[in-house]
Amino acid sequence: xxxxxxxxxxxxxxxxxxxxxxxxxxxxxxxxxxxxxxxxxxxxxxxxxxxxxxxxxxxxxxxxxxxxxxxxxxxxxxxxxxxxxxxxxxxxxxxxxxxxxxxxxxxxxxxxxxxxxxxxxxxxxxxxxxxxxxxxxxxxxxxxxxxxxxxxxxxxxxxxxxxxxxxxxxxxxxxxxxxxxxxxxxxxxxxxxxxxxxxxxxxxxxxxxxxxxxxxxxxxxxxxxxxxxxxxxxxxxxxxxxxxxxxxxxxxxxxxxxxxxxxxxxxxxxxxxxxxxxxxxxxxxxxxxxxxxxxxxxxxxxxxxxxxxxxxxxxxxxxxxxxxxxxxxxxxxxxxxxxxxxxxxxxxxxxxxxxxxxxxxx
DNA sequence: AACGCGTGGAC
DNA sequence: TGTCCAAGCGT
Length: 362
Known about the structure:
This protein is an alpha+beta fold. The chain has helices spanning 2-11, 16-30, 42-52, 57-70, 74-79, 82-89, 96-112, 120-124, 131-142, 151-160, 170-183, 189-202, 221-225, 287-295, 351-357, and strands at residues 241-251, 257-261, 272-273, 276-278, 297-311, 315-329, 336-339.
């Protein structure tokens, strides 16, 4: 096996026993107190791992507490309405995480009596549980010596072992998984995995790592050569495409406001928003005509309220927000409806449209 | 394999 | 302001 040879080459002369001891002792001493570390409940570990995907600890904490209050058990989450789950996820981003999580929890309740599987293959079949999350649940909740390789782990090990592979490539993650199988503590795989991540979060940070405080400094090849800020190697992503929109706050004669639900798949799936005219396809002169074609309503545009910019990971919405009133016609749109202004807060909205709420004066 | 998928914080 | 990022996954 090619990868096995590389693993021997990289970690062959590395003192893994010493590394395990230093890492685990440091983690035991210096780990943060976090809500999902109160116990080893697999359900809580699972929720926390999904929420923490691409998301900072400080952001997750209040969402985690609220989520566990609303859905304390797998059964509670399985029985909940999907819109209620999305509302609890509102603002966290990557909303398919929430839908996949609920689908997977429903599967666990139906097939496994609500017990999160401790079998790697069964666990990995669940929606939203990829290689990282699977290893995290197995090691943290079930004390199994499985790798949980995230961005922290790749950064830390790139430096400690001086691995110069591009961590943006999937094949690199597999190399690190192989290295973890070799390095992991069979005695305490949970503290080992969490220790690597905690070290990446607190000490071995991307920009200016605190090497002087690092518990494994004397083992770190990058530090020894003074190249810790050169690692890891990561190819850059391309920049976002800008899309202009006209977002409309449309009121009818009863002073209700028009909102619509986005499609069930894709960007911001199943969330709600104010109607938007895509100015990349329609010029401003034709906006009302386009609107009539789309919604069956003749509207008169009012004043321009504000501009809202929304930056996604892969694109940017630049929205001009304007008021509008209905002149005539009847609403003809599958996923749109008029609601009283005070009802709007009951629907899950993306952040960009939460910002628009604040411009509505009752 | 590369791309679609959110958001807010740090510098 | 721009850039990069933070406990990834699905397709």
